[in-house]
Amino acid sequence: MPSSHSALVASSATAIGKKLGLDSVEFAISFVVALVVMYDASGVRRAAGQQARILNKLILHWGENDPRFVEEKLKELLGHTPIEVMVGALLGIAIALVR
Q: Are the C-beta atoms of residues 85 and 6 closer than 8 Å to each other?
């Protein structure tokens, strides 16, 4: 359920912030990377999954009329919902703070 990618980058940024300080360059870089990864997981990859679902329907429909269009189905389960990303990030932060 939670995004493991979000948990990884959030825990990394938290651990770096904890060890080097929130005003360090390393924390700033890890924080920005975490934001990019979480945005990608919930936005770009999720949109790609929705597009794959629509393309699979089109391919199935066209395949009924012309067998040349029938190919292997595209992967539809890409990305995470925003809640899954948030839970992953919170889990990552909690794990880094416990250690």
A: yes
Single-letter residue type at 55: L
Q: Residue 37: which domain range?
A: 4-98
Q: Are 56 and 73 in contact (CB under 8 A)?
A: yes
Convert the pLDDT of each residue in 14-55 to its tens digit.
Answer: 999 999 999 999 999 999 999 999 988 888 777 777 887 888
- Note whether 99 and 56 are within 8 A (CB): no
Closest of 74, 96, 92, 88 to residue 40, by C-alpha: 88
Number of structural domains (the chain) is: 1
